[in-house]
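Ticket reopened. Same input as before:
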Amino acid sequence: MAVTTASVASRLRALLPEGRVLDEPTSLVPYAYDASFWSLRARRMPDAVVVPESADDVVRVVRFAAETGTPVVARGAGTGQTGGAVPARGGIVISFARMRRVHEIDRTNLQCVAEPGIVYADLNATLGGHGLFFPPDPGSGRACTIGGMVANNASGPHAVKWGTTSAYVLGAEVVLADGSVIVSGGARSKALKSSSGIDLTKLFVGSEGTLGILTRLRLRVQPRPAARAVVLAAYDDLDHTVGTLDDLFAAGILPATAELLDRTAVEALMKWKPDLGLPSGEAVLLVEIEGTRTSVSASVREVEGIVGRRATVTQLAEEEAAVQRLWAARGGLAAATALVFPGKHRIFAGEDLAVPISEIPRTIRRAREIGRETGVSVIFYGHFGDGNVHSGIVIDPEDPDEVRRADELADRLHRLAIEVGGTVTGEHGTGAVRAQYMRAEHGPALDVMRRMKKVLDPQGILNPGKLDLEG
Amino acid sequence: MAVTTASVASRLRALLPEGRVLDEPTSLVPYAYDASFWSLRARRMPDAVVVPESADDVVRVVRFAAETGTPVVARGAGTGQTGGAVPARGGIVISFARMRRVHEIDRTNLQCVAEPGIVYADLNATLGGHGLFFPPDPGSGRACTIGGMVANNASGPHAVKWGTTSAYVLGAEVVLADGSVIVSGGARSKALKSSSGIDLTKLFVGSEGTLGILTRLRLRVQPRPAARAVVLAAYDDLDHTVGTLDDLFAAGILPATAELLDRTAVEALMKWKPDLGLPSGEAVLLVEIEGTRTSVSASVREVEGIVGRRATVTQLAEEEAAVQRLWAARGGLAAATALVFPGKHRIFAGEDLAVPISEIPRTIRRAREIGRETGVSVIFYGHFGDGNVHSGIVIDPEDPDEVRRADELADRLHRLAIEVGGTVTGEHGTGAVRAQYMRAEHGPALDVMRRMKKVLDPQGILNPGKLDLEG
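Engineering reply: fixed in the latest deploy. New output:
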């Protein structure tokens, strides 16, 4: 039963309560984009946008999509950098902007139940009132939704100690491609762990809306550590940063974060906030430890002593205000970049390599060379403690030749990641942008992913054109 | 192409290097059993046992199984408690006893690569030489294999802080039901995290050999904390144990473990090891914290102070020798049980409920009542910090009426777990024993598990009769 583009919205309106469907061309425009450079050029408009307020609304949309073979794409805040929430083949975008209730916060059982549209920062603010937090901490945390984080298996600086979003999803209500609904992780369970049956929850985490649409999440949360402190260390050689991390591991210490700023990132930050007082060097590491007040103040000097073996300078940030200032500055790196390269823009492309920790220095050196070879400005920073290297590519998007060279740079960075034993994306996801690298990274395992897709979404209506799942 | 039972071994011998195939009836007997009470009665003999030395051997066996429709069951050490490694429908058992190499230990990159047959204790001993450890710590750790742990998503006391095996599997080489081989988690990746493609690794973790057979594992490992200490606390009311844990959470403290011994477990241990000096009470908690030497000694009294608010008595074990003595005693609880109930045997049935932490007191009280109603002796203990309650059922297995009552008890315990919002298995797996509870626990999600099974193993040759996947 084919359906014309124009009739999608009107037919959806007939199925849904009032005020759920958008199809004014100007109101559709924002849904053609996310933060990826790809989406700026691809301009993939949806035929209609639905803003559901309940799982039942979502079920109605998906049933309609299934009956008509219409693509349907779940969207959180649109902060993604891979086109994951962009309707690559048109169809319906489901915006979770109004499904942002927190149904339950249960400290004793270390979990909460929330709708996927809740913004990360809002959830954490609510959890904070109970002494809790949701550990994965993406850079886009002030805007991104928890649903988007789950869809992409997002993380951030604290993944070194706390792991990625996957570790914190205990269960999910999922609308399948035929409009039926399951609850993974136990239909009525509030258990914190389970070995029962096949772990479907983790299959949906990171699948970017290609296997099902999440409408309710049961999340593991953690007691919020009472104290933290940061050791800042500057190095005259990138290789010594690897040595420092290994020294910490040898001493039995897994820091909460170990953030890397390469020379260019340090320069950008110091230009933006000269009073930040960052030490200068080939690289700077920010090593954070957490715990109780007594344990942090007892161990921070031990950590500084270990870090100091290879660093040229170390500094301590022990006051919470100083720690917050550091992380706020780190979070503003994109803004800082603009100052170093006036008139240019940071684009998101090839920006999320994750490589073995030991390969970070070689990767950054090689990436700098590729930047020089292509004549494109790049700054490097990242979550050093788990090998996640972000490349901030800065160009004039109106200059077609620079755009072509940036495309080449991004392509070579992705290939470099695979070559050094890494992955094309540590935490941002695959989306449309990185679909082309799936075969090179996964080999025959891609065929198994495609079989999962085929069996759960035989018509291919769920977020088509992503992850190279259609084969 | 059907194949007679008698010819399985001879045909396998023709396909494999010498010395890989067992079919002497007496040598097959051990493979009919694991630690489950079910297997003692079911007596499901394999037609042949293969002891491969390489993935290539496994591929040959699975290809043969696929061509002939013969069931094939992967087996680690056979310490499982659900019949998971028992050939419920006959066929071939693949024992990983000789595939126990550690290919690589890489501290800088916090990972190791090993074959699934390596014994947990052996891997940890090897990792210890590098200052590392594999955190999930099952009670059977001195015997069980890492492959078995991955197949069951095993854990243990330290899952409170460190999570379950699932969190530590970065990738796997998997032989699929048609004998083809994939590598999940990136074909050549050594990355510590990834958002690339669909997460197949986590689909195989916990699937108990029903979706594929693991032949090589890439595991995340952790720096081994330099110090630990245990706060022991006795309570006159089970409910106060929940309060203590919540007090710790409110103070931002997630202990490494919070083990519970109920009154009967304390009595059993004190009968076995009177010099252990456990405090007596309705329940005892063992709260462990870990860190550097300085951080542990700084915070252990803080923890003791919090625990002391609701406990009747607290004690500290700060010396490593004292901590080891405590955990060794806890590990010997099965032996201790035998002393309290002379002439009876601990059976494994209904022994692995996991419920919301807040429901533990009610669950144990109700479980005690069910024990009285059925006239069966039970002791309770468990990983309190994640809601995992173990029930040690003690019977005379030669007494048919007591066996019947134990079956009833186990059945009612499983149903109790679901009723209070828990799961029928926190860490031991589903296997044959708990297949009957899958529908009650998972509802329509079971159908999705079955679709996964169907698409990955259309003939149903991989560990049939488990997890209720055949529908």
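The first helix of chain B runs from residue 5 to 15. Chain B touches chain A through 110 residues (CB under 8 Å). Please confirm and we'll close it.
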